[in-house]
Design goal:
With 459 residues, this protein is of the alpha/beta class. It folds into 4 domains: 128 residues, Response regulator (Rossmann fold); 163 residues, P-loop containing nucleotide triphosphate hydrolases (Rossmann fold, 3-Layer(aba) Sandwich); 92 residues, Helicase, Ruva Protein, domain 3; 41 residues, Arc Repressor Mutant, subunit A (Orthogonal Bundle), CATH 1.10.10. Strand 1, helix 1 and strand 2 form a beta-alpha-beta unit. Helix 13 packs across helix 15 and helix 17 packs across helix 18. It is globular, with a radius of gyration of 26 Å. The structure holds adenosine-5'-triphosphate and magnesium ion.
Length: 459
């Protein structure tokens, strides 16, 4: 029987939670404050902790940080008062599985608890197995060789099982749609509908009725009642792509729906309850649109509970070759010998700066496949625009071709450059934490600093 530790300094809430969860068949232990909770954690094992955020003397955030440090196998759900969602978001960033706002609904509580327990169960069961699987295959169909993409996948894995709204940022072609689908596929809603709507492609006049539906006679041409995307996605996920293009009046309506979890059809008077998880994507930062009064700040806060930033392809060259391989496999189909990418072609693809990101890479490979001869992808098969850009870059010295990296260099200079590259990568891999990097490299922090190129003033 799963064991749950409940921590709240308000006796009424503590008792209520205790009663509900015992009624659900869980083995619960109530704790009236953080100190008591810490004592219990030291002597007993729990599968899940539910903790209020606002408590004295030890508040929920401190409790959470201790728990995620020492009891990583235990899930944590935070309780937060309505209107303090930003703290809850902070909590999720610090390792909480999910949060519940007070006053909570019974089924919401029960569902979140179930989900957390399932997730942590699966984690522990798979632990040994998981450590053997390379990251590359961690999330089906998402190539993630670079630290930046791995971080994205880790985020997806962590937030997918929750009900939280997610905002996905990334330049065009970086994989926002792919990430949104993965969030659905790795969630308990996976067997329900995934609906996607591109807010930029939908005319403003149609958007309201598309999203919420309309009743017969609501407007000219509304010859019958029609359900909208929200109702169609009931129980599942609704992906609002290019949310930055959503007109302000629809933004207000969307906000209402997110708050009330109910929709009203255009021209109708009844409210229908909907249970839909929202994922939104944008290629521009919504903050700047808020400043221009083009996006509602309150909606932004609702949507960006968790945001995932997909880095542009030019900042993660490690992904290029694995992506090419992945695309070739996808395009060629199973059991077919893959075409060969020759060195010149590879060098061009490696050095291009990919303004259109993975989508542009896909197009380039398709182009190459169309013009390939004898199953080999050469420089000549690539789009001329890409080849020209890279060759111009090499001529002007902006790009160092790989062959030139070796030219006219002493062995010492070459090794020095390689060492720098390796140091920098290690530091990037641990998000800039030099102490950790030094540890991984097996050198002292002082040695690491000595080896790093000296930064010039103002850099
Ligand atoms: N990491 C990745 N691994 C495998 N395929 C990827 C990856 N990233 C993107 N792709 C592929 O690249 C193409 C573009 O991705 P997607 O449509 O998700 O990008 P997007 O950010 O939504 O673009 P846009 O802003 O143009 O809508 C898709 O075919 C997708 O499958
Ligand atoms: Mg897209």
């Amino acid at each position: 029987m799963p064991r749950i530790l409940i921590v709240d300094d308000e006796p009424t809430i503590l008792n209520l939670l205790n009663k509900i969860l015992t009624g659900q068949g869980y083995d619960t232990t109530p704790a009236g404050d953080g100190e008591k909770a810490l004592q219990l954690l030291q002597t007993e094992t729990f599968d899940l902790m539910i903790s209020d955020i606002n408590m004295t003397p030890i508040n929920g955030m401190e409790l959470l940080s201790k728990a995620s440090e020492s009891y990583a196998d235990m899930g944590v759900i935070m309780l937060t008062a309505y209107g303090t969602v930003s703290t809850a978001v902070e909590a999720m960033k610090n390792g909480a599985f999910d949060y519940i706002t007070k006053p909570f609904k019974l089924d919401e509580l029960v569902l979140t608890v179930q989900r957390a327990l399932e997730y942590y169960n699966a984690l522990t069961e798979n632990k040994t197995l998981k450590s053997q699987i390379v990251h590359l295959e961690k999330l089906d169909g998402i190539i993630a060789e670079s630290p930046g993409m791995r971080k994205v996948c880790d985020m997806v894995e962590r937030v997918a099982p929750t009900n939280t709204t997610v905002l996905v940022y990334g330049e065009s072609g970086t994989g926002k749609g792919l990430v949104a689908r993965a969030l659905h596929r790795y969630s308990p809603r996976k067997d329900k509908t995934f609906m996607a709507v591109n807010c930029a492609a939908l005319p403003a006049q149609l958007m309201e009725s598309e999203m919420f539906g309309h009743v017969k006679g609501a407007f000219t041409g509304a010859s019958s009642t029609k359900i909208g995307l929200f109702e169609a996605a009931h129980g599942g996920t609704l992906f609002l792509d290019e949310i930055s293009s959503m007109p302000l009046d629809i933004q207000s309506k969307l906000l209402r729906v997110l708050q009330d979890k109910k929709i009203r059809k255009v021209g109708g008077s009844d409210h229908t309850e909907v249970d839909v998880r929202i994922i939104a994507a944008s290629n521009e930062k919504l903050e700047s649109l808020i400043e221009q009064d083009k996006f509602r700040e309150d909606l932004y806060y609702r949507l960006s509970v968790i945001s995932i930033d997909i880095p542009p392809l030019r900042t993660r060259p490690e992904d290029i070759l694995p992506l090419i391989d992945h695309i070739l496999r996808k395009e060629s189909g199973p059991d077919v010998e893959l075409p060969l990418l020759d060195r010149n072609a590879q060098e061009i693809l490696d050095n291009y700066n990919w303004p259109g990101n993975v989508r542009e890479l896909e197009n380039a490979i398709q182009h190459a496949l169309t013009f390939a001869q004898n199953g080999s992808l050469t420089k000549e098969t690539l789009p001329a625009k890409i080849v020209d850009a890279v060759e111009a870059g090499i001529r002007s010295g902006v790009i160092t071709s790989r062959r030139d990296q070796f030219k006219g260099k002493s062995l010492k200079a070459f090794l020095h450059d390689k060492e720098n590259e390796f140091l920098q990568r290690t530091i990037d891999n641990v998000a800039g934490d030099k102490e950790k990097a030094a540890e991984e490299l097996g050198i002292s922090l002082a040695t690491l600093y000595r080896k790093l190129p000296q930064k010039k003033n103002g850099e």
